[in-house]
Amino acid sequence: MKRVLIVDDSIAVARQLEKIVNSDEGFEVVGQGRNGAEAIKLCQQEKPDILCMDVNMPVMDGLTALRNLMKLTPDLNVVMVTSLGGVGDKFTEALKLGAKDVLSKPFEKDSVLSMLRRL
User: Fold this and answer.
1) Quick one: CA dihedral 62, 67, 70, 73, positive or negative?
2) Taking the chain, what is the end-to-end CA distance rounded to the nearest angstrom?
3) Backbone phi, then psi, for 77, in 5-degree steps?
4) pLDDT tens for residues 13-37?
């Protein structure tokens, strides 16, 4: 079973993603955070296999957290999550920084699960 950490400042989005992830017996959500600083702390505590993290968050954004996490745990599978529109440069930067993929809101259950299974 792969351990998944979800980090998003929107509680509704985090719950929706958690419901999708937990619907597959191959995955288990091990925690939720609200910003990049929490993502770093929770990754060190929970040691997830996969981190699903929003790009735009308060305190510390997802790209800054990704930069730090790749130094600490370069083998971590990170999926960046964001809304559609005007984020192409951030997606490209996230992939260059080490993210494995990008997930766009609104989520489609089958595409989310198939992406996670590839990691």
Assistant:
1) negative
2) 12
3) -85, 110
4) 999 999 999 999 999 999 999 999 9
Place of tokens 């191959």: 26
Note the pLDDT tens digit of each residue in 33-53.
Answer: 999 999 999 999 999 999 999
Kindly state the average pLDDT of the residues 98-116: 91
For 6, residues 6+ apart whose C-beta sits below 8 A from its C-beta are 14, 17, 18, 21, 29, 31, 32, 33, 52, 53
Cα–Cα distance measured from residue 36 to residue 22, given in angstroms and rounded to the nearest whole number: 22
Residues contacting 24, CB < 8 A, separation 6+: 113, 116, 117
Which tokens hold the place of 3?
A: 């351990």
Exposed (0-12), middle (13-18) or buried (19+): which is 1, by Cβ within 10 Å?
exposed
Which tokens go with 47? Answer: 């040691």
Which domains does the chain possess? 2-118 (3.40.50.2300)
